[in-house]
From TrEMBL:
<feature type="binding site">
    <location>
        <position position="147"/>
    </location>
    <ligand>
        <name>substrate</name>
    </ligand>
</feature>
<comment type="similarity">
    <text>Belongs to the NadC/ModD family.</text>
</comment>
<feature type="binding site">
    <location>
        <position position="208"/>
    </location>
    <ligand>
        <name>substrate</name>
    </ligand>
</feature>
<keyword id="KW-0662">Pyridine nucleotide biosynthesis</keyword>
<dbReference type="InterPro" id="IPR027277">
    <property type="entry name" value="NadC/ModD"/>
</dbReference>
<feature type="binding site">
    <location>
        <begin position="255"/>
        <end position="257"/>
    </location>
    <ligand>
        <name>substrate</name>
    </ligand>
</feature>
<feature type="binding site">
    <location>
        <begin position="234"/>
        <end position="236"/>
    </location>
    <ligand>
        <name>substrate</name>
    </ligand>
</feature>
<dbReference type="InterPro" id="IPR013785">
    <property type="entry name" value="Aldolase_TIM"/>
</dbReference>
<feature type="binding site">
    <location>
        <position position="187"/>
    </location>
    <ligand>
        <name>substrate</name>
    </ligand>
</feature>
<protein>
    <recommendedName>
        <fullName>nicotinate-nucleotide diphosphorylase (carboxylating)</fullName>
        <ecNumber>2.4.2.19</ecNumber>
    </recommendedName>
</protein>
<comment type="pathway">
    <text>Cofactor biosynthesis; NAD(+) biosynthesis; nicotinate D-ribonucleotide from quinolinate: step 1/1.</text>
</comment>
<dbReference type="InterPro" id="IPR002638">
    <property type="entry name" value="Quinolinate_PRibosylTrfase_C"/>
</dbReference>
<keyword id="KW-0808">Transferase</keyword>
<dbReference type="GO" id="GO:0034213">
    <property type="term" value="P:quinolinate catabolic process"/>
</dbReference>
<feature type="binding site">
    <location>
        <begin position="123"/>
        <end position="125"/>
    </location>
    <ligand>
        <name>substrate</name>
    </ligand>
</feature>
<feature type="domain" description="Quinolinate phosphoribosyl transferase C-terminal">
    <location>
        <begin position="102"/>
        <end position="270"/>
    </location>
</feature>
<dbReference type="Pfam" id="PF02749">
    <property type="entry name" value="QRPTase_N"/>
</dbReference>
Length: 272
C-alpha cells in the first residue's frame, strides 16, 4: 500500500467505528504539543504530515527527521478542533514512537562505523506489512537500505547454495535472465565459499557469521585479487561487536538488530 493508504489504515485500526469522546461534547479549538521524555533521533515526520493532510491538522515542526533531540524538547505542535486532535493522538504518537525508536538505535550503530568509512545496512528482518515504514526509519538514523524485497537483487544465500551444483554456471546463466543493472550477492560462511563466489563473478560477497579474524583474511584476498567486488559483513552484529567488524576492511555491515532490537523511546502529547 502507498503512504496515504498506510496512514488511513493505521488510523482506522485505532478509531474503529468512531471516537466515543466526540459524541458527548461539541468540538472546540485545541492546541497540543509532543514532548520528548528521553534523548533520541527524530523519525516519522513524513507519516505524520500525511496524517495531518488527511485529518486537516495544522502541524508546526520543531524537530525534523534525522535530527537529534533531548529529554524535555518539544518536537512538534498540533492545532485543530479538539475532536481531530484527540482522535489522532495515538496514531500520531505510535508512528513517531516506532520510527524514532528505530532511528535512535540505528544512529548508535551508524556513529560507530562512520569513522571507518563503512556503510551500515538494514535487512529484511522487519515486521509484516511495516517494511517500508521501518526501512524509512533506519534511513533517518543513518543507515543505507539493503534490498526492500527479493526482486531488488539476486542474493544467493546458504539455503540457495544447497540447490546449486555449479555456482559459476548459475551466475553466468543468471546474468542472461535478470536485469542488466541487477547485482548478484553471494552469502559465504567460510573462506572457501567466499573464494568460490569471487571466482564465479559475484558483485557482492557477504561474510556471514564469521569472526573479525576470518573476515580480515577474506578482505586481504579480495584486495589482492578482486578489488572490484564489494564485501559485506553480517551475523553476530551488536553494539558491542560492530566496531571490531568495521575495522576489518569490509565495505558494509548489515544488521537486523536495527529494527528487531529497537526498544521504544518515551514521548508523549500534552494538550494546552
Amino acid at each position: 500500500m502507498n503512504l496515504e493508504e498506510f496512514v488511513k489504515s493505521t488510523l482506522a485500526e485505532d478509531i474503529g467505528r468512531g471516537d466515543l469522546y466526540a459524541l458527548v461534547e461539541e468540538a472546540v479549538e485545541a492546541e497540543a504539543y509532543v514532548i520528548a521524555k528521553c534523548d533520541g533521533i527524530m523519525a516519522g515526520q513524513t507519516y505524520v504530515n500525511t496524517l495531518a493532510f488527511i485529518e486537516e491538522l495544522e502541524i508546526e515542526w520543531l524537530k525534523n527527521d534525522s535530527e537529534s533531540f533531548v529529554d524535555g524538547d518539544i518536537l512538534l505542535r498540533v492545532r485543530a478542533d479538539s475532536h481531530r486532535v484527540l482522535r489522532t493522538e495515538r496514531t500520531l504518537l505510535n508512528m513517531l514512537l516506532h520510527a524514532s525508536s528505530i532511528a535512535t538505535l540505528t544512529k548508535k550503530y551508524a556513529s560507530i562505523v562512520e569513522p571507518y568509512g563503512v556503510k551500515l545496512l538494514d535487512t529484511r528482518k522487519t515486521r509484516p506489512q511495516l517494511r517500508v515504514f521501518e526501512k524509512y526509519a533506519t534511513r533517518c538514523g543513518g543507515a543505507v537500505n539493503h534490498r526492500l524485497g527479493l526482486d531488488d537483487s539476486l542474493m544467493i544465500k546458504d539455503t540457495h547454495l544447497k540447490t546449486i551444483k555449479n555456482l559459476k554456471n548459475y551466475i553466468q546463466k543468471a546474468r542472461r535472465q535478470i536485469p542488466f543493472t541487477t547485482k548478484i550477492e553471494v552469502e559465504a560462511e567460510t573462506f572457501d565459499i567466499a573464494k568460490e563466489a569471487f571466482e564465479s563473478g559475484a558483485d557482492v560477497v557477504m561474510c556471514d557469521n564469521m569472526t573479525p579474524e576470518q573476515i580480515r583474511e577474506i578482505v586481504a584476498y579480495r584486495d589482492a585479487n578482486y578489488a572490484h567486488i564489494t564485501l559485506e559483513a553480517s551475523g553476530n552484529i551488536s553494539l558491542k561487536t560492530i566496531e571490531s567488524y568495521a575495522k576489518t576492511g569490509v565495505d558494509a555491515i548489515s544488521s537486523g538488530a536495527l529494527t528487531h532490537q529497537a526498544n521504544w523511546i518515551d514521548i508523549s502529547m500534552k494538550v494546552q
